[in-house]
């Protein structure tokens, strides 16, 4: 049966092959959260710069990505993800970044669709975007209001514990 995701307004494509990504392969959990639904139709990540999502995104990054990309996404055996240079220029858009995470790229950059839930991919993307160290004007994935407030990542940051926002854990 057709799922809501199959009707995504955007044709997400594999970064290397250009094949349309098949979201029926995604992990069943976290597949149709409000944020995933919004992202599938707009290509805008609702978690960007939402402080309630950043710490969760950081935890996912540290367990799934930093071993290859470095603790601050500065690059290690995989390229730095915290600057404005992209091997695949489409990663400058959230649509492209999501597609690379979901479907992988080359070498040891394998597809993450069996590793992370779609909702977790959006959280890790928000954290990667937050680690951006260059001028805010280059942060083209942000809304105008977010870009005005954005500060290039400057190292350690004390994030509040479970603040209000889209990822707040209701107790
Ligand atoms: C490339 C993200 C996990 C190794 C990339 C790129 C992105 C990315 C966006 C393309 C960068 C560009 O266009 O410049 C992530 C995320 C991860 C993750 C978000 C965790 C969910 C890993 C892991 C490894 C790895 C675990 C090693 C086992 C690499 C390598 C490349 C790469 C070697 C270069 C591939 C190529 O140029 O085709 N990654 N990655 N990544 N990543 Fe990852
Ligand atoms: Ca880079």
Brief summary:
The protein is mainly alpha-helical and 171 residues long. 33% of the residues lie in helices and 0% in strands. It has one domain: Cytochrome c-like domain (Cytochrome Bc1 Complex, Chain D, domain 2, Orthogonal Bundle).
Largest sheet composition = none
- CATH-assigned fold name: Cytochrome Bc1 Complex, Chain D, domain 2
Low-pLDDT residue intervals, each spanning 5 or more residues = none
Q: Regarding CATH, which class?
A: Mainly Alpha
Number of domains: 1
SS content category: mainly alpha
- Chemical compounds bound to the protein: protoporphyrin IX containing FE, calcium ion
The tally of strands reads 0
Helix content: 25-40%
Number of helices: 6
Seen as an oligomer or otherwise, the chain set is: single chain
Strand percent estimate: under 5%
Overall average pLDDT: 94
N- and C-termini, Cα separation? 35 Å
In CATH terms, what is the architecture?
A: Orthogonal Bundle
The succession of helices and strands, N to C, reads HHHHHH
Radius of gyration, in angstroms, nearest whole number: 15 Å
What's the overall geometry?
globular
The CATH homologous superfamily corresponds to: Cytochrome c-like domain
List the helices and strands and how they pair.
Layout: H1 34-42, H2 51-64, H3 66-69, H4 94-103, H5 118-130, H6 144-149
Helix pairs in contact: 2-5, 4-5
Bound molecules: protoporphyrin IX containing FE (HEM) and calcium ion (CA).
Calcium ion is lined by residues 79-81, 83, 85-86.
